[in-house]
Amino acid sequence: MAKLSTKSLAMLRLVLIFLVNAVSRVAAINHCSSHLFTVNDTSIQFTKEVVNQEYAVLGQFKSLHCCAKGYRSIEWFKNGKPYPWPGDVSTLILYPEALNQTIYTRHASSVDNGNYTCVVSNETIRLVQQMSLVVQANSPDAPLPTYRPKDQTVELGHTARLYCEAFVGNLGLPDVKSDISWHRVFEGQLENVYEGSQQVIRREDDQNVGAILELTNVNAKSYGRYLCRIEMGNSAHRLEMSAWLFGPPIKAEDSSSVFMQFLAIILACMTFIVIIMIYRYAPVWRQMNQKKNNQCRLDPADKYNIPTRP
Ligand SMILES: *[C@@H]1O[C@H](CO)[C@@H](O)[C@H](O)[C@H]1NC(C)=O
Ligand SMILES: *[C@@H]1O[C@H](CO)[C@@H](O)[C@H](O)[C@H]1NC(C)=O
Ligand SMILES: *[C@@H]1O[C@H](CO)[C@@H](O)[C@H](O)[C@H]1NC(C)=O
Ligand SMILES: *[C@@H]1O[C@H](CO)[C@@H](O)[C@H](O)[C@H]1NC(C)=O
Question: What number does the ligand 2 atom closest to the CA of 45 have?
């Protein structure tokens, strides 16, 4: 009886391990098939933000991603060495089910530390991304930034997308959670953003936590600074990262043409005033000139006191 139960416990444990691995693998597959940019063209490109700084905990599942489309081939390198790697270079292997956009290991090891590069190409174009993987002995005490949001310039009416992500590791106790949220920074104060505009993404068994802030139909009020706050357990372990949303700059030639327009208006006004002046005072000037001329012509004697004939 006791033997049977240890046997079934072992079985249960195996099934659980299998399930956990399956879930991790499914999460790994899904990473490149969800939350993609909504760009409607088929040219070669990355389909979501590429995380360039990755962390793993020794002995735990880890995957790296290079989500792309429109490519003919995708290649991976570790510290310049092309895949497949010998075991002493890296234990990460390709995941063909994700169209080779993902490499993973079930048990991260210290040999996995290093710089990974993915090269996505067609016959004429090569796109390269580098990501650095750091394998840590333990979970971190505070969130480590993996993707810092980038400043963006977005035209009125278009959509802005900001992303931030951090590595929080295994939090251990199930009731210890990590929180992530986007805020608007307005006059030095944090304001909540519309809840529907953010999406939280947890990957690698919740060891990485990220959030997309998507602002559709950007208007003048949307421009400004946004802050992403990540908290682990309690707020003592907090990470804040921020980025600016800018409107398109006023082009130099636009501002010079505005200046030229201004100049033209001034010139037109001055011309108008001059014309009015001429029109208004021309008769007076003519009269004055005539008087002067008459004086000169008629009264030389007066002027020079020449005696005239009676
Ligand atoms: C995307 O492309 C498809 C096919 O070219 C087209 O039918 C669709 O209207 C496009 N959608 C947008 C939002 O441009
Ligand atoms: C490679 O991709 C670029 C950008 O999408 C495209 O302009 C070019 O035609 C592609 N080359 C080939 C040979 O398909
Ligand atoms: C994935 O990589 C394997 C091994 O390098 C290769 O045989 C296969 O064709 C690749 N698949 C895709 C979709 O690129
Ligand atoms: C990885 O890249 C960084 C910067 O790109 C460099 O400082 C570091 O030495 C590289 N590490 C290895 C193992 O090549």
Answer: 5
**pLDDT tens, residue by residue, 246-261:** 998 876 655 566 677 7
Is the shortest distance between the CB of 50 and ligand 3 below 6 Å? no
What sections of 299-309 are H helices per DSSP?
300-304
- State the Cα–Cα distance between residues 21 and 170, nearest whole angstrom: 15
Q: What is the pLDDT of residues 190-247, one digit of tens each?
A: 998 887 799 999 988 889 999 999 999 999 999 999 999 999 876 678 999 999 999 9
- The SS3 call for residue 306 is coil
Please tell me the distance between residue 223's alpha carbon and the centre of ligand 1 in angstroms: 28
* Rounded-to-integer distance, Cα 141 and Cα 124, Å: 45
- Whether residue 174 has a cis bond before it, omega within 30° of 0: no
Nearest atom (ligand 2) to Cα of 42? 5
pTM confidence score: 0.73
Compute the distance between CA of residue 124 and CA of residue 105 in angstroms, rounded to an integer. 32
Q: State residue 40's pLDDT score.
A: 84
> By 3-state DSSP, what share of the chain in percent is helix, strand and coil, each rounded to 5?
30, 35, 35
Q: Do 254 and 161 touch, CB atoms closer than 8 A?
A: no
Six-digit token string for 252: 């130099």
Task: Give me the residue label for tokens 């936590």.
Answer: 209
Instruction: Check if 94 has its Cβ closer than 6 Å to any atom of ligand 3.
Output: yes
Q: Is the CB of 99 under 6 A from ligand 3?
A: yes
For ligand 2, atom 9, the nearest C-alpha belongs to 124
Mean pLDDT of the chain: 83
pLDDT tens for residues 13-68? 655 555 555 555 555 557 898 899 988 888 999 999 999 999 999 999 999 999 99
Ligand 4, atom 14, residue with closest C-alpha:
79
39 in contact with ligand 2, CB cutoff 6 A: no
Nearest-atom index, ligand 2, CA of 122: 1
